[in-house]
Here is the input.
Amino acid sequence: MPNAFIRRTRMQGDQLTRNAGIQLDRLRDRRLCIGITGLSRSGKSTFITSLINQLLQHKKASLPGFSPVLSGQLIDVRLHPLETPGLATFAYQQAWDRLCSQPPAWPEPTRDISGCLLELRLKRKPGRLNPFARDHFSLWLEIRDYPGEWLLDLPLRELSFREWSLECAHLYAQAPRAELAPDFLAQLSQLNPLSEANPAQLEQLQADFCAFLTRCKDQGLSQLQPGRFLLPGRNDDPALLAFVPLPNLAGITEEQLHSASENSWYCVLQTCYLRYIKELVEPFFRNFFSRIDRQVVLVDVVQALNGGPAHIDDMRAALTRITDSFHYGHQSRLLQLFRPRIDRVLYAATKIDQVISDDHEAVRSFLASLVSDAYRHAEYEGIAPACEATSAVRCSREVDADGDRAISGLDAQGQPIGYVHPRFPARLPEPDHWQQLMDWKIPALQPPTGLSARNGDAIPHIRLDTVLNLLLGDKCL
Here is the structure.
């Protein structure tokens, strides 16, 4: 018993020491926390894997746009154990091994929160103020990975159950959602919010609701709430997922709802909705999301444009809603310790190796137009968001096809494939161009062959050096 007390006291003391060191590094502007997320299938795990790989292999990697490498200021990069209790370690080695396997495979997608900690050892630029200062210093970089589905739940913190239900009613009445599960949506619309809830019926409706959200995701739609219905956390209580929206609340007054029986559909579903926010959404925001200094939002613009105007509108609305949930602002280092705010946001269009290099700038311009509404909140707080087009793992090359530039690579089965795609627009296309883009069958490409972990290879990429410079360049001075 005394030994257990001593061990527990020692562990608590070590944790306090670590926390004090972390806060001191933040105060000295030597620690940075970057959150990386994106809408479904935007390539988060692959992006983080390549980002880590480029830093670890910076001497071999192609990083001409990352100023610390170009100037020779970056000396060394090392991975360290995480210092955040309860946060799982990002599975970098497993992801890297999959890319290096034969045949190569993509990293497993993000399914829960995780993170990693890197130490960047940098040369200090010579100065006159302190001739006794060390000639090198460490920048600690914590990367936090979390599912985009969970990010979509942050707007629920500002919505009552009635407001959310009415939003769902509006959304589900429009194409393409209205055609995805007409029988289920009809059952929802027939529920009387003031009548007594049926537990067995609720169980079936909740299962059908999850299936409906899965169909929406498979169709490439972006507004998917509640996000944890699609991707629950490892320790989520299933009882917190036992609710559905009530679409037909528009004709019922607040007085009627206030006087509804506690066993009514409205009260039962509202209670679970509020518990979902209190016990899942709020802790995620408070303990994980609110510590982020800089945010990367990944967007698969190519796939969204291929889906058509409805998919683009849906993605635009989702991006605007989630970025309104960020806390922006420049402030002193001392205030940043107690009330962190995001001082930089980067929107990155992913998988641009699917299009020819002549269209890369058009992809970036299209992304900028897509997130223009999301910009406004950040700009109001004095933050200038950036847009970039990138490919974390380049798995194609350009070839000539009868005078046209074409993409060549390996398909998902490892067979050679090539295609000429429609020109990518820099803004919303005209109707005839829309049809060309929607008719484009985008093949799934296999990762490049021949990568070797044993030889410390650097992953081929497009513009990831620019991304690193936008995120870290100013902190490496």
